[in-house]
Specification:
Layout: E1 2-4, H1 5-8, H2 15-23, H3 33-39, E2 41-46, E3 66-67, E4 70-71, H4 72-81, E5 87-92, H5 96-103, E6 111-116, H6 123-128, E7 137-141, E8 145-147, H7 151-159, E9 165-173, E10 178-181, E11 187-191, E12 195-202, E13 205-209, H8 221-231, E14 235-239, E15 244-246, H9 250-261
Parallel strand pairs: 1-6, 2-5, 2-7, 5-6, 9-14
Antiparallel strand pairs: 3-4, 7-13, 8-15, 9-12, 9-13, 10-11
């Protein structure tokens, strides 16, 4: 289903959103895990132009670039669906019709809306333009990061703190190999593109309370919205220590394809610790 952002404000909502209103008590976070999965919607940001993957994104949105024969967007959606979260809002923009075509191939048992949030809209603006379609707690993802994130644990962490927003942090993956040396300058070890555990970055798996829109500031999620929430004391970080890798370039898509063919670690939730 495709929704124009100007029509969304008066949309009565789909079946999942109707069940949300019936099943939950506003202001309360005390639900069973099954109820949480049914009621929580996930906004997927898939409207950018993907300029770092050009020219492969000239006629194809970056979320539809393939990893092991399937769009990375499909892999991201499957991470959620395999854990029981099957209500999605695809916040599209650039080449929105291609996202709509892809959405028609998804399982009929999933609740999927495609929202045209505008070709030039920034990440924070895309989330804000989906405001009328979300209720209660909702999740957000960039559509280009694959990880074995335990979503039940992520939501439980969010439920357990007083803030309105949770982001998932992951160790910074170095694009270069590093060299360990001793005090005398002797080389002791080479490490090929290690994860730098002392440096944490935003992994793109978010949980928000709908009331976060009362504090939503700016159009850029990373440079405006999240820093403002942090300054207000409303942003908390869930630490994911398992597999995670993003796809920023076509080279990254090829690298993820190799990883997928060796076992797709993002499908093995719960086998690595988070803290």
């Amino acid at each position: 289903m495709s929704i124009d952002v100007n029509e969304a404000a008066t949309s009565p909502g789909g079946s999942v959103r109707q069940r949300t209103l019936l099943m939950k008590t506003r202001g309360s976070r005390a639900y069973s895990s099954i109820e949480r999965r049914i009621t929580i919607q996930t906004v997927i940001l898939c409207g950018g132009k993907g300029t770092r993957a050009y020219p492969h994104t000239e006629t194809l949105p970056k979320p539809l670039l393939e990893v092991d024969g399937a769009p990375i967007l499909g892999h991201v959606l499957r991470i959620y669906a395999d854990q029981g979260f099957t209500s999605f809002i695809l916040a599209a923009g650039y080449l929105v019709e291609r996202i709509e075509d892809f959405a028609r191939t998804l399982p009929l048992s999933w609740d999927v809306d495609v929202v045209d949030t505008g070709e030039e809209t920034n990440t924070g603006g895309r989330v804000a333009r989906c405001k009328s379609l979300v209720d209660g707690t909702f999740m957000v993802n960039y559509s280009d990061g694959l990880g074995d994130v335990d979503l039940d644990a992520l939501v439980a962490f969010h439920d357990g703190h007083p803030g309105r927003a949770t982001l998932t942090t992951v160790p910074l993956p170095s694009q270069y190999g590093t060299i360990d040396i001793d005090r005398d300058g002797r080389v002791s070890r080479f490490r090929e593109k290690p994860r730098l555990a002392e440096h944490l970055i935003n992994g793109g798996y978010f949980v928000f309370d709908r009331s976060v829109f009362d504090l939503w500031t700016g159009e850029d999620l990373e440079r405006e919205v999240l820093p403002a929430l942090g300054s207000a004391g409303e942003l908390y970080a869930y630490r994911h220590l398992g597999f995670w890798q993003s796809m920023d370039t076509y080279k990254d898509a090829l690298a993820l394809t190799e990883i997928a063919r060796a076992g797709a670690p993002w499908t093995r939730v719960g086998q690595a610790p988070s803290a």
